[in-house]
Write a structure and sequence with these properties.
161 residues; mainly alpha; Ferritin
């Protein structure tokens, strides 16, 4: 199960590599630099998630000191490294742009990534992973639909079409 979770976290990070970020286009910055920032942010985000899981495991094992070390490092990865890189890349746009980007990312997960992952896992006999990918895909539908509703409400509030 730990391997499936690690794979799923890596897969989610990979999605955002492929899907891109519509608001992250910074015409003053070279495309290679933007690509490198994206790669770095994904690494930092993955480290944040992974180190928090490590901290949780260490706590459950009774190793508070190690748990605190992992948790402290995770916070640096997310709230310093990732945040600074995201700012350089202009990751965050307007609320409407952020919602559109979230819808795009969730739609990719729903329509492409998780169905492919489930199919591939099932084909090699990894039923638990295939089932988990399908379950997560259904969760992503809820997220996408909530973002769509929020965007519609935002556009109605501001008189946008």
């Amino acid at each position: 199960m730990k391997a499936v979770l690690s794979f799923a976290l890596a897969a989610v990070a990979a999605i955002f590599f492929m899907v891109g970020r519509t608001t992250a286009q910074n015409s003053a910055m070279h495309q290679q630099t933007l690509d490198n920032l994206s790669t770095a942010m994904h690494g930092e985000a993955f480290a944040y998630a992974k180190y928090n899981l490590y901290a949780q495991h260490a706590r459950q094992s009774g190793n508070k000191k190690l748990a605190d070390l992992f948790a402290k490092t995770a916070r640096v990865e997310r709230f310093q490294h990732f945040a600074e890189e995201a700012q350089l890349a202009n990751l965050v746009g307007t609320d409407a742009d952020n919602l559109r980007d979230a819808i795009q990312g969730e739609s990719y997960e729903i329509n492409t990534m998780y169905p492919n992952f489930a199919k591939q896992a099932a084909a090699v006999g990894d039923k638990a992973a295939a089932d988990r990918f399908e379950e997560i895909r259904r969760d992503e539908m809820i997220h996408r639909d909530a973002y769509k509703a929020a965007l519609k409400a935002l556009e109605s509030q501001h008189g946008e079409n």
